[in-house]
Amino acid sequence: MPHHRKLSFGYSPGQQVLHDLSLDIGQGDFVGIVGHTGSGKSTLLSLMLRYYSSPQGSIEINGQALDSIDNEHFRADVGLVPQDPFLLAASARENIDMGRGLPQHEIEAAARAAHAHDFITDLEQGYETSLGEAGGRLSTGQKQLIAIARALAGKPRILLLDEATSHIDSQTEQIVQVALNELRGQVTIIAIAHRLSTIRDADRIVVLNHGRISESGSHDELMRIDGGLYQRLYLLQQLAV
Ligand SMILES: Nc1ncnc2c1ncn2[C@@H]1O[C@H](COP(=O)(O)OP(=O)(O)O)[C@@H](O)[C@H]1O
Ligand SMILES: [Mg+2]
Q1: Ligand 1 in reach of 206 Cβ (< 6 A)
Q2: Which of 48, 155, 170, 214 sits at a 20 to 30 Å CA gap from 7?
Q3: What is the pLDDT of residues 10-30, one digit of tens each?
């Protein structure tokens, strides 16, 4: 929206990390955020999670300034999928429930949405199977699907992912892609992605460069910017495969 105050932020005075950002994120949008290491992606996410607040400008999602939401609602509104999720030495069900006391059908609905239901039911005791210390018996990708189910089980309006696919196998990465596309329209998705394939189908991809938005558009639009940062990052990753 045009009346937004642009957002700037630094961890210490005189060292700005984010400069004049303006992001208009609507209900149900799927937004990808990409950029080199150090460009400010995690900082932007920290602001979205309200770990920090900026005296200059604010972030609005679904038309509401994040800092105007009270704490209780905010916690319920936002689900986070981190890069390396921790698992409890507890059952699959407990790892999704996280003490919320949800009924089984809600646990299962979240697991289905995260495409975790099938591998969970394949475990010898299904949802009651203990995942062991740090989820030792699951693959990294499966742990990440549990983490997505866990976030979705809270029925967030906003789902934040911080490089959630960086360390998983490419098969699971494709499953995450499918899951995110299925959630489109139901949940506002903001996904920082090192692996560009994860956010290829996002409604909008925002490219951060030294704390500024340098490009913004769909994958196809950004690929048409010859010599653009997104195009270069994408072609580099194609080569790396
Ligand atoms: N907690 C912090 N305190 C001070 N500086 C930080 C902190 N976190 C990140 N930075 C700095 O902010 C800049 C952006 O970092 P970050 O947001 O982590 O980028 P990205 O996630 O894109 O790699 C970097 O220069 C980094 O060194
Ligand atoms: Mg980061």
Answers
A1: no
A2: 155
A3: 999 889 999 999 888 888 999
